[in-house]
Amino acid sequence: MIKYKYLCLLLLAVAGSPTHAQDPSTSAAQAFPTKPVRFVLGPAPELLPRLVSQKLSELWGHQVIVDPRPGAGGIVAGDLVSKATPDGYTWLVSTGSFYVLDALYPKLSYNMLRDFAPVTLMASIPFICVVHPAVPAKSLAELVQLAKAQPGKLNFASAGTGTTTQLAAELFKLSTGINIVHVPYKGVAPAVTDVLAGQVQMMFSIAQGAVPHVQSGKLRALAITSKKRSPAVPEVPTITEAGFPEIDIVGWNGVSVPIKTPRALVNKLNTDIRKVLNQKDMQDRMIAAGFDLADTSLEQFDAFIKKDVALYNRIIKESKMKLD
Question: Can you give the pTM of this predicted structure?
């Protein structure tokens, strides 16, 4: 009886020892969130982060607040989040443009690959090559012929130097050998506005920036860079169908957090964001807006980013892209 008593005491002591205690980061992840979350947005469109924030606020019972910080092409947003406490309460709406900035500004105070942990891809956003109706080209092949017949005469708009809207057009130039002139703007909206007005002839716009104008007939869409046609503009061929499969580039919106955020917490964020992205009404809204749905693990999103970074670096090097 005495031996049995000592055995019970020994088992209780082992069970209560620090080596068997729950990891504090796991406990913190299980309790998360206990206060509002800040979702910092650079120059990207607000629709998707606002939809996700609304759904997460409903799921958690705590607000997820979108905080637009578009200054300096995203540098302000990236710097702010890179310096935030890595406790899961400050996120970045990460896009390809942030990784382009790493290459163009090697002396930035932060580096996306070094200082951020990828959480999940929310959606990819195909580009649509659009032209003003006055441009005589009715297809991408005809646009290339026109540009070759009039080198340096056609202008293309972008959301700014170093944005993925510029990189998509630069890849188009590299793949076809044409000479078209870059006209940078401070965002997608003013760039599209000038294409609508005929001040600039063409643009590789992110889908949601161009779809309403394509649907209304104010812009002519020649191709979309997604792998399959978009339900929003089903008559627009993919860039592969248009005869240019080597132009393989899309925009995207993801979630990233400071690199030292505990892994257990990053896993929880990944799980819960994917949960709301997979809700039927969310998917309907995203498809209607021209997004391609995503559902990625931490590892899949990390591999996606690294593949895109390699592409961005190639385009920047081969096009000799420089800051204007």
Answer: 0.84
